[in-house]
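Record 1 of the preview.
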Amino acid sequence: MDNSNTSPTPPEPPPPPRRRLRPLALVGLAALLLAAGAPVWLATTESGFRAFCTLASAVSGGRLRLVPAGGVLAGPFELEEAVWHQPGMTVRIKDANVDWSPAALRHRRLDIARLAAANLRIETAPASEPLALPASLRLPLAARIGEFRIGRLERGGTLLAEDVAGGFTSDGVRHRLTGLRARAGPVGLAVDAELEGDAPFPLSATGSAAGQLEGHPFSLTLEAGGRLAAIDIAGQAGGALQGRLAALATPFEPQPFQRLQVHLRGFDPATWLPGAPGATLDLDADLLPRRAAEWTVSGPFSVINRAPGPIDARRLPVERLSGRADWRGEVITFSGLSAALAGGGSLAGQGRLAGRQLDLELTASRLDAATLHPRLRPTRLAGPINLRIGPAEQSLAADLTDPQFRLAARLTRRGERVDIASLQLGAGPARLQARGHLDLDAAYRFEADGELARFDPSRFAQVPAASLNATFTAAGTLQPRPALALRFVLGDSRFKGQPLGGRGEVDIAWPTVRRAEVRLVAGPNRLEAHGAFGRPGDSLAILIDAPTLGPYGIAGGLRGQLRLAGTPAAPAFGGRLQAERLGLPGGGLIRGLEAEGESGARAGDPLRLDLRIAAVDLAERPDAAQEVSVHAEGSRARHTLRAAAALAGQRRLTLAAAGGLAERGGVTFWSGQLEQGTLTAADPSQNLRLLQPAPLRLGSGEWALGPAELAGAEWRSRLLASAARGRLQAEASGAGERLGKIDARLEARLQGAWRLAQEAPWQGRLDLAAADVAWLGPLLGEDWRTAGRLQGNLLLAGTPARPLLSGQMQGTGLGLRIPSRALQLENGKLQADLAGDRLRVATLAFDSRLRPLPPALQRSPNTPAALTATPGRLEIKGEIGLGGPGRAASPERGFLDLRLDRVGILQQPDEWVAVSGGGRLHWQGAVLAAEGKLQVDAGYWELASLGMPRLSDDVVIRTAGRPPATRPKLDLDVEIDAGPDFHFSGAGLESRLAGSVHVKASGRDLPRATGTIRTVGGKFDAYGQTLAVTRGIVNFQGFVDNPGLNVRAVRRGLPVEPGVEVTGTVKKPVVRLVSDPELPEAEKLSWLVLGHGSEQIGGGDASTLVAAASSILGRNSSGGVVQQLERRFGVEEFGVRQGSISDTGTLQATSRVAGGSAYSTAPGITPGTTGDQIVTVSKRLAANVLLSYEQALGRTENIVKLTVNLSRRLSVVGRAGSDNAIDLFYTLRFGK
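->
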């Protein structure tokens, strides 16, 4: 078949156009859907949020890294970490939480409701160029952060603040930071600020800081204004650090400020630096920039010490320091330094502080050592002093001289080694030379040698005179156990006028004495030690023969022999000590000491100890203990011990223990139990006893007691305490029906076994819940009674040298009574808290129950009816500083504000006073100050009857005893108003008193008063007559106890108006008679006492008139009135006695002045009473014959008596009248 003519198949036709566009449409639709759905996916899904974080990191080129933790981008969302890094700075945020509103972006506003982060850390590299002022601080859109919180804000590795919170708003131009709060350690911060975003960027800000700095209250307020390139800053500090700050800050200039002024007041270094001396410093500095090209500021500064003092009082002996500081870069140069020292001395020179090294070149002038320490002798030293203080090296070189003294020293510290190249001290022929070194390593190794030639320490200090000639060498270590190799030769020397000499070689590696060969002789006293102790076969003998220790500051003497053998773990001892009198440190005294004992080194060796002391007198308690006895018997491993003593206050202590000495790990200790312990007192409520045996362990480095169960009259307690491995742990608890419940706990570091480590931390707690605080009354005062409920807690922190206390105390139903004054406060309430060293009394208030008014006040029209209708009120608020060892007192240690409303301070029938007013008590250092104003609401004061005779002012009684205590310092400024209703009754006077007195006192001066107290109406009863007080003024213009007097009292209703006028002062009154019309003195007295003139005087009136003249005017100050009466009536002797007409009067209380007149009384008799008083008027007829007339006052009895002295011992007395008798007396006299 032929296929040559077959036609080819035609190609397929192209698709229609619609079919060609379909794939493109599908791709476009997919792109549109992706573009529209991706943002929704990113914003509303967690996977989209994770993708966004990855995309953001990629877009930023790795500068931003976000690690999502959950949520969606539209919010809220969480970030585990966010990091932004750029050259020179890295910002790291941990655990962030963001709640925001993305929809606000459509209105060009960023709205974040809450932004929180657990940690924000900023790390920056040192800038090579200064900051540049930005051209604009506008934001691209408005912003609001309703609340932001940052747990920790750090810069580098330094914590800047915690708990940062606040808010932020901005319209894009004006930015506001509101309510920023933060905490930096114990200090709280608060800031509000506003900043414009356009140049020159005006700003304003306020800030404050308050809290505790180094355990002391502190506050600071700041205000800032101006513009960003030049910010005016003003600050005010309060609390323990007070002062002002003013500065012009220039953060974008080479110098950070254009002006800096600092004014501090009352700065105390001891408050902020442990161990620093106390002072009250006022610091003023005014620094200004000097060069614009580089940071250089300079200006004067001055420091004034308002409380200088000697070093022994832990004070700073510098009065004033001034100079000029030039601060350039990291170097501060001091020029024109001038320091004024106490006593007129001064230091002048220059210095340089570069980095951490301070160099000072000073010249001393007129340096007085006595102002540095009161026991040093006055000097006028002058010379150079060079100091270098740096982290690697410190050195001192000084060469000070005056015409009598020389002090030269060169010492250097490099690292842990202190080298004393030379130390020279001289005064005339006296000389001391020494040198050595000390290594401040763990062992504290040291070496020293020196020489003393005719050295008299009294030339340099107020110590006993001596003349010492000696050489010495010493070497050893101080830690962990002391070791000392000492050799000395004490040549021809004297001390306190007695010969002194000896030599010795001592080699000690504690507790072993490797060698001891010592012989010392001091006057009649001798001390010898020979041998060794601490190794097997060693024996150390000590001989003490010191009968006279008085010249060396120890009362009495001591004799004895001691023998030590064995090892420290198993020592053997024996010996005997005796002392009739032996002084104790602090001024105490032991009398009648006898001690004898012995013990072997093995466990079964016998042990015996007998100690007897007749009496123990302490400086603060002369009769502290008597009949002290301690007796131990048994073996070394097991023995009993009994002790007893009679204590002061009629108390007796008895103890009994059983145990033995044991050895463990080379350490010897006593282990046993306290089997008996009782303390009995005259007051059964003070008795104490041990309920059951308590374990007891005693060692050289540790001890333990308890648990010990103790019981008192109405309480029981439990005590557990131990010291081991340098730590003290103690727990105590007590409970009782009135005591309530007390729990206490203490943990502290120790130095040794018995001494607290002063600079080591300690902690403790006290919880108190007392149902009745009646036990508190006797602690406050002998006559005080307390009641109420008290509960609280107390936390102890800090160190023993600087304790920090915190806690709170609440009291309800509190009461205070003082029966002797009838003061009764009740329904009391207390709210107090303790922080640092300040006790803040928020509330202490009492009701004052007022007793019924005395009759005089009930009759008074001035007494308001509502005075006693409701109780009075006493309210107290304030703060008290609790200074302690090592803590200097703040400028104001504390204050208490008092408000009184009808407080009955005295409520007895004869002493009734209610007062109102207010005032403040405050403590300034050691000075107690009181200021206020008080007014007596109502008062009645009745003087007790005079009676007991007193000695004349010219009689001085001298008794052995302690000198009177120094009067405390007191600043007093109190005004007292007698009020409208103060009544007085006493010494014959009844009147109402009015007026006011202003009392002031300063330091230890006696109080002085200004003001006037006057009588309003009133009467004066004397000699059966009633005198009207026409003028009664007591004027205070000086000491309180000696006011001026201006008193006039007259007898009215007579043709002649007689009276008495008293002027002068209380201590030296001037009394004179007055009358209207004016009459002679004798006539005035007759009208005053008898009511008629002298022409009508009878025989019975004469004695009364003479007695009145002597009593009212006195014999020597009467202006001759008494003598006129004696001459007129022929009276030679006048007397008053107490008794009856029928007795002889020779055995009764009487007062007679031969040849004159006197008026005195027996106890209980006052010039205004009669009773059994007998007035005697006598006329001597011959040398041995006396004629007397006796009249009973207030009765119709009288006698005439004739006395004839037959000899010095024998006399005859005849009486006629109301009693008739003849008596024969034989007199025996005793004494001088």
